[in-house]
Each structure stands twice: as C-alpha cells, then as structure tokens.
Fold:
Amino acid sequence: MTGRALPTLPTLPREKRPGPAIKRTLDQTQIEAARKGIVTEEMTFVAKRENCSPELVRDEVARGRCVIPANHNHPALEPMGIGIKLTVKVNANIGNSAVSSGLEGELRKLHACVHYGADTAMDLSTGTQLDEIRQSIIDASPIPIGTVPIYQVLEENGPFDWGIDEFLSVIEKQAKQGVDYMTLHYGVLRDHLPLVKDRITGIVSRGGSITAAWMKRHNLENPLYAHWDRILEILKAYDVTVSAGDGLRPGCLHDASDAAQFAELDALGSLVKRTRDAGVQIMIEGPGHVPFNQIAMNVERQQRVCDEAPFYVLGPLVTDAAPGYDHITSCIGATAAATAGAAYLCYVTPMEHLGLPREEDVRDGIIAYRIAAHAADIAKGHPGARRRDDDLSAARAMFLWEKQFSLSLDPEKARELHARAGVSTHADFCSMCGPHFCSMKINKDNNLS
Structure:
C-alpha cells in the first residue's frame, strides 16, 4: 500500500537529521551485529546524530543499554538510538478510536510529531481502518513507529475469543508492515492479579487490563509469557524491538511503588537476557504516576532488575490533581526520571485522562517533553547539551530576537508571543520592562557587563 502525502505544514529544520536515508542492514539484527563486533550503517547514523563514536553506539547496543528500533521493512526510517549514554528521547502517542479521528487526522498528527521534534511515535489506534492507518503512517514516517498489538487482537477477535495463534498472527502482520517496536505485556502474570485489590484505580493499562481479564476468563497463564520464544522468532526476522509493557503500572499516586508494580517489574526483568540472546533488542516500560520523592528509586530499581535495559517512562505524573495540565504535572516527573537514568520519555498531552488528543494537544505534549528531555541532558552533563542555552542567552543579552526564536524549542510560539506584545524585533527592550527599565539595556548602555 502506498502512503498518502502528509498534509502541508511549515517545515522546521531538525538538527538531529544529519543527512539522507541510509542503506539499511537487513541480514541480521542490530544486537546480533553489535555482539559480533560489527558497526552497522544504522549505528553509524545514530553516532552522527549523537556526536559520538560508532564504536560507543555498537558497545552500548551489544551490552543492551541501547536499542535502535529499525524494522527491515521501514525504508523511510532515519535511525535513532535510545540509551542512557545518548540524549534522552521523546515518544508521542497518536492513533484513532472508534469515536474519534481517521486516516487524515492521524497523518496530520504524525506530521506534527515530526515537525515539533518527537523522536518516535506510537500508533495506538483502536477503531477502524487499523491496517490502512498503520501502513500509511509507516510509509510516511522518518521516525520509528511503535504499536500495541493486543489492541488489534481485541478488535479482530473480541475480548476473549483469541489465543496465542491469533496474537502471533497480528504480531507478524504488523512486523511485515514495518513496525519498529511493539509494546508486549508479557509481565502481567496470574499470580499478580490479587496484588491489585487494594488499589484505587486498579489496572489502568489497556493492554494490562485486557490480558488480566483474558487470564481470569480462561484460567490460563499470560500467553505472551508462556510462548515468548515463538514471539521472539517473529520479532528477530524483522528486527522489531520489544517494548516490555508495564501492564500493572500505577494509575495514581496511591498505587505507586506497590507490590503489583514491582512483581511485574521482576517478571519483565526475568526475560531480558533470553530476549537479547535470541537476537532481539528490548527496552522496559515504566510507571505513569509516582510521587516525586519515589522517582529516582523506581529508575534505580528498574536498572538493577532489568540488567540496564533502556527505561521508557510515561511521565510520571507527580500529582493527580490537575486534569487539563497533565503535560506539566508529568514532565516534572519526566525530568526527574531522565536525570536519574531513564532513557526514553513517553509524552503526556493536556488531554490525558480527558479524551483523545487533537493536533494542538500533540504539539503541547511534545514541546513539554522536549523541555524535560533537554533539561535532563543538561543535568546529566551530556556533552554539548547546554550549548543551545548559552547561545540563546547570548542572543537575548544582545537583543537578537530572531536568533533567540530560531534557537528556542518552539520558534513559532516564541515569535507568536513576541509579536503579540507589539514591540519590534529591532528594539533593544521588550514590553515587560519598556525602554527605560530593561536591565539588559541598562547593562549595555553603562558597560556593566
């Protein structure tokens, strides 16, 4: 199927893109090559983006601390790496539902993801046209695309009328289409279900709740956990990265860091080595609501239990009391998590807990999370991370407004707000202080700095 052209939006230069598409490595997976001492084209591309050596990228992939989601069947992909030694990455969720959006709407959301700087996007569609939407997104996308296959299993078979064969069929179909990474909730086990009884919000993960209900209805163990080797055979054939789903993640502060969450984390960690040894890359998904003072502990525990696999966190939200502003409550937690060692942040939009995000919500979520990721890179002392800040500050001190705009994480927003103030970009003051009370103007006029 041929992807449709993306809707027209103004184009921003993306600093992370060093050049054209590459000749893809197809005869082995990234981790297989890395463990043989081979530097792939994808690793070289990632190294250019990160301003580091290809050998460092290879070493990290071989160790399992870095993943490069790059399905053999995603030819438009510009590879990127996720790992603690690289810059913190941001994922944006898109996708339709039975009551909202469609193909054109999802392509516009994808365009917004790329335009505003998301590093990856997940298609979480649950309504109609699932295959068509997914294929069009993959065909159009230069960034890695992820999915949650259990959503399509449910759509095609009903809540409980499926088993491992139906699940494998969907996994293989999506892998053939070019999906780069898949959320698979293999860590939700039958023994864990009694552990959620004292929670306020129970099981908030869609995939986790579906899996739990299926196990209870069939009185069987999680089919993903029970048939993990069969799943790995498919994923290896296309070099699809596992994103180990946190089906028992806490959905509110009360439920954070409880026995259910950590029991699942132990189960996720138990299959990390087996996955890598099968030639498949793996990262681990983390909690969504955690009090600020528990975030570092959660990251450190994941790194220990899961053999340093890249940690992919949803926020976490540090308060439950601000619906409509959860892109803010969550990016506070995201900065803390990334500073503590999380490598990958899943954005939250203002529509979290309220409804399906629109295009403008996608923008707000991405920018909030790019701020969080950038702040963490600075806090960790990532080489060159603060250069942008220093350059922008120098431009601010010299009243070089256009340079300030171009260096900001959202130039369009900065220009829009400055124009609203009604002061020329040639002025050596802004509307907050005016021409007589601007400290920077006073510094300049009196040679104070």
Remarks:
- The beta strands are 66-67, 82-83, 89-94, 120-123, 145-147, 181-184, 241-244, 282-285, 311-314, 344-346.
- Confidence is low (pLDDT under 50) at residues 1-20.
- The first strand starts at residue 66 and ends at 67.
